[in-house]
């Protein structure tokens, strides 16, 4: 009598035959004691954390070329090799503009709905890969913005420039070396919006049943929270809508969106902190549906950067022209 093949072995063989092998490197600073399964679940959320645990257990996720347990912690610089099965990568707008390039430092104008680095369902269709192919060189990503956000992203060819730029980001209290970042956003529920206002407080990942990384803003510091500050200026008004300029003094996840939400101002197209709340995000992820008339992406644009060059100390000032879809939306609400 033939011995039945191990079911797990069959599944693993099938996965090897039908899957695509992909690799990623942890370029960003991450918190200590982040487990491999949590990192993969957060960065590549098309699989649940439990699914990643199964794949890691089957040896289909390697950390620095080695099979490890899913409880293993990861660090900046680690390389991860993993398998994905039967998943088509979404198409993206590859019309990336280079608005500054001195042979080392590069600043690109990123289109909306283009991820900066591999994440989720995206691997080849990323800003990193597109610019690398455009310029035919290796590049380091020096800052990131959300996939849906358009505008300025900084890169470098050299590692020294990358290291010094990251040190500049860390030295927020040094005014001379501070990086000035300005965004433009379109908001609604804005009939009574102030001309100028500052929002500051302590942001905390509080969680929500429809979005587990939901951030809340608190007046006082509490355990796990981080200080945040944004200065807003209203530059255009259209009945219930407004166009605002946001100057960042800190760089927390979802900072501008959370700060607007705390003032009952909702960024147009925001699936998490918008006027319908994070249920929109859940429906979009699970069912690929959004409310009728809902703008297809968050109306946020990384408009300008101002900083001293990390090597030459020369003052760099760049602006990324407002994305076409946002210009058209402003024209539309202007005529309402």
Features:
disordered N terminus, 3 domains, Pseudouridine synthase, Structural Genomics Hypothetical 15.5 Kd Protein In mrcA-pckA Intergenic Region, Chain A
Describe the structure.
This protein is of the alpha+beta class. The chain folds into three domains: 79 residues, RNA-binding S4 domain (Structural Genomics Hypothetical 15.5 Kd Protein In mrcA-pckA Intergenic Region, Chain A, Roll); 99 residues, Pseudouridine synthase (2-Layer Sandwich), CATH 3.30.2350; 118 residues, Pseudouridine synthase (2-Layer Sandwich). It is built from eight helices and 16 strands. The strands form two sheets. Strands 5, 6, 7, 8, 9, 10, 11, 12, 13, 14, 15 and 16 form a twelve-stranded mixed β-sheet that branches. It has a four-stranded antiparallel β-sheet with strand order 1-4-2-3. Helix 2 packs across helix 3.
Largest sheet: 12 strands, mixed
How many runs of DSSP E, i.e. beta strands?
A: 16
Q: Into which percent range does the helicity of residues fall?
A: 10-25%
- Assembly status: single chain
Would you give the CATH topology of the largest domain?
Answer: Pseudouridine synthase
The general outline is globular
CATH architect. name of the largest domain: 2-Layer Sandwich
Whole-number count of domains: 3
**Unreliable segments of 5+ consecutive residues:** 1-10
In whole angstroms, the N-to-C terminal distance is 77 Å
